[in-house]
């Protein structure tokens, strides 16, 4: 498997802001694996900005590019350094976040914002818009997907725009006057 490094690779290796974690052994394993992982990018700079691409990190554990495969599940490690905003997005797969270390504010449509810390979880249903933001602390997460693996995450504004365009493209019935 090819090792792919991103800006987040080096940031994760130097990260000292996680503090204590009940999952410290898992945190250490995730950081070590990050040195040989195949890091991914799901967005383009014109969508999320270069700063996001330079600092957000995601690498697969189960699924394409990861060391394990499954027909029923995908798993990634997600790293977000301090003061990073992951904009509103959605995907067809249902998703569960397990916070390994650090903390972040998790937002999802139809729910109040919640700050999650090591050991906490949050579930996002299929096509449920959600966003994440770190403050002074970074966050390290295990993210699990089920159901639909063929469609990558899409920024929610882009999803809405595509739906609006699709509705405009529907054939219209003209009536004679």
Mean pLDDT: 84
Q: Give the H and E element order.
A: HHHHEEEEEEEEEH
As a percent range, the share of helical residues equals 10-25%
Number of E strands:
9
Shape: globular
Separation of termini?
66 Å
Low-confidence stretches: 172-177
How can the largest sheet be summarized?
9 strands, antiparallel
Instruction: Classify the secondary structure makeup into a structural class.
Output: alpha+beta
Give me the Rg, rounded. 18 Å
> Tally the helices: what do you get?
5
Strand content: 25-35%
Name some characteristics of this structure:
9 strands; disordered C terminus; globular; alpha+beta; 177 residues
Question: What this model shows, in words?
Answer:
The protein has 177 residues and is α+β, with helices and mostly antiparallel strands. It is 23% helix and 32% strand. The protein is built from 5 helices and 9 strands, in the order H-H-H-H-E-E-E-E-E-E-E-E-E-H. Strands 1, 2, 3, 4, 5, 6, 7, 8 and 9 form a 9-stranded antiparallel beta sheet that branches. Strand 4 and strand 5 form a beta hairpin. The protein is globular, with a radius of gyration of 18 Å. The termini are far apart.
Short characterization:
The chain is of the alpha+beta class. The chain has helices at residues 7-14, 24-33, 45-48, 50-55, 156-168; strands spanning 57-62, 74-80, 85-90, 94-108, 114-117, 121-124, 130-133, 139-146, 154-155.
Strand-helix topology:
Blueprint: H1 7-14, H2 24-33, H3 45-48, H4 50-55, E1 57-62, E2 74-80, E3 85-90, E4 94-108, E5 114-117, E6 121-124, E7 130-133, E8 139-146, E9 154-155, H5 156-168
Antiparallel strand pairs: 1-2, 2-8, 3-7, 3-9, 4-5, 4-6, 4-7, 4-8
């Amino acid at each position: 498997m090819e090792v792919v490094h991103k800006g987040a690779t080096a940031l994760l290796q130097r990260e000292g802001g996680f503090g204590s974690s009940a999952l410290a052994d898992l945190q250490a394993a995730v950081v070590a694996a990050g040195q040989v992982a195949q890091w991914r990018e799901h967005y383009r700079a014109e969508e999320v900005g270069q700063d996001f691409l330079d600092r957000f990190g995601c690498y697969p554990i189960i699924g394409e590019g990861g060391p394990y495969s499954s027909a029923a599940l995908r798993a990634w490690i997600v790293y977000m350094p301090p003061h990073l905003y992951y904009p509103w997005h959605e995907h067809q797969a249902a998703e569960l976040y397990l916070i390994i270390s650090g903390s972040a504010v998790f937002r999802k449509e139809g729910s109040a914002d919640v700050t999650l810390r090591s050991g906490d979880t949050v579930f996002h249903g299929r096509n449920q818009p959600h966003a994440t933001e770190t403050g002074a602390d970074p966050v390290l997460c295990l993210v699990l997907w089920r159901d639909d693996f063929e469609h990558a995450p899409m920024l929610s504004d882009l999803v809405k725009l595509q739906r609006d365009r699709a509705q405009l493209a529907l054939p219209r019935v003209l009536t004679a006057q």
